[in-house]
Amino acid sequence: MDALNQTRVTEFVFLGLTDNWVLEILFFMAFSVTYVLTLLGNILILVTIVFTPRLHTPMYFFLSNLSFIDICHSSVTMPKMLEGLLLEKKTISFDNCIAQLFFLHLFACAEIFLLTIMAYDRYVAICTPLHYPNVMNMRVCVQLVFALWLGGTVHSLVQTFLTTRLPYCGPNIIDSYFCDVPPVIKLACTDTYLTGMLIVSNSGTISLTCFLALIASYTVILVSLRKQSAEGRQKALSTCSAHFMVVALFFGPCIFIYTRPDTSFSIDKVVSVFYTVVTPLLNPLIYTLRNEEVKCAIKQLRRRQVFS
């Protein structure tokens, strides 16, 4: 009760990535370029898919949604991180911190569900190709995307509720460069063991369960590819390997962070940078550089001067 009667924290202070100003300048330049490339790359994919009728298929519909999520996901943390690299004191108000936390989990969970749906789409296309047009028609695709956003919203609301229900009366130093549930609840003026367990049962379980489902689906796909022709097998492997690279790059850090909220390691910041900064940039690179259809569509749009 004494903790609850104390003054509530009105702002948090980030420790950031480093306190070395030379490294901060170098990080600022590197991450600024990364953020711009992330926006341009994902916008390029979105525009290419929208303006290319032959790409209006379930796979590319999901890919356009992935690009949209990556734009939003990176924009939740990157601008504030870049601002912090230029400021000596890196602060964020309590309300803005909670808002950042909410949208971070919304877009991260939406991406987890979308990658799982994309794996299911590839499973149906490769293992039951004759039923694919009926099983994965556009109406079903829209329903799946609506469901993933609904699921992401519910998950994010749960995470936000678990965080805001705790009292915060100091300290207010977050050992990170953005607001997330594990580092924020450590600052609560009460025991957070139960909250930590609920986080594991929510974020950790979602990440781990979806990842295992993805592994199972790709295992079935690889087994079924033995019956395919050499050309069909090569095309399927190219598509699936690109998807699996994205899955591994995104799920690995999420599982590492959200299955152990009560403990922290020095490498946590590096892992966080990887899934909030690097992965959104790698997605368009992986899907465009390895996908002949997308590259041809981009070339055709350049000739039509869509981007001029």
Question: Describe it for me?
Answer:
Residues 41-287 form the G-protein coupled receptors family 1 profile domain. The protein has 308 residues and is mostly helical. The protein has one domain (9-303): Rhopdopsin 7-helix transmembrane proteins, CATH 1.20.1070.10. It has helices spanning 2-5, 21-50, 58-86, 94-127, 132-135, 138-164, 181-185, 193-224, 230-258, 268-289, 292-303, and strands spanning 11-14, 90-93, 173-174. Helix 6 (138-164) runs antiparallel to helix 8 (193-224), helix 8 (193-224) packs antiparallel against helix 9 and helix 9 packs antiparallel against helix 10 (268-289). The chain is globular. The protein starts with a helix and ends in a 5-residue tail after the last helix. The model is unreliable at 1-5 (pLDDT under 50).
Question: TL;DR of this structure?
Answer:
This protein is mainly alpha-helical. The protein is built from eleven helices and three strands, in the order H-E-H-H-E-H-H-H-E-H-H-H-H-H.
